[in-house]
Amino acid sequence: MQAQVERSKETTIPLTANNAIPEDASVPTLPPTPSRIPHIVHQSYSTTFLPASFTTFRNSCIHLSPSWEFKRWTNTDNRELVATEYPHLLDLYDSYNDKIKRIDMVRYLYLHKYGGVYIDLDMACLNPFSDVLDAFEDKFLVASQFIKKVDYANAFIASPPDHPIFGNDLRKTSFHS
């Protein structure tokens, strides 16, 4: 099987072992293509049991965006994500005295690692995610919680994985307690 390397819009050259670019060759750097917001929704609750009110809100989103993947994270899942993917943040994560501080941290880690949408379980959906997000395919989005006053909240955030807003790789970045 041959991989295809697009050199220009007019020419496509099959890449084989015989015509591979030598390691020491000067290869032009192509501009990165914008990454889109993956169709995955992250939500977090302490256990696998979800209260009825949260189930109703969550189901409103699933009903309107049935082709999207919905991932529900538990406290155990969250700690495992930090321990596995961001081990330098584990001591800080464990040091938080309030559960909400840990949740606030991991919602950004979900988006850094996987991209997609984080939405709190106490928020209902009124429109399909694609209706809103597909127009902003490479953006980091955050919802304002007030109509007249600009005050951003992290109850609804969306981004492609590894978005530049995260700065340097979060695997090397510290949060502050």
From TrEMBL:
Example GO BP: mannosyl-inositol phosphorylceramide biosynthetic process
GO molecular function annotation: mannosyltransferase activity
GO CC annotation: membrane
Highest classification ranks of the organism: Eukaryota, Sar, Stramenopiles, Ochrophyta, Bolidophyceae
Coiled-coil portions: none
Pfam family, one: Gly_transf_sug
Keywords: Transferase
Identification of the protein by name: Uncharacterized protein
Keyword Transferase: yes
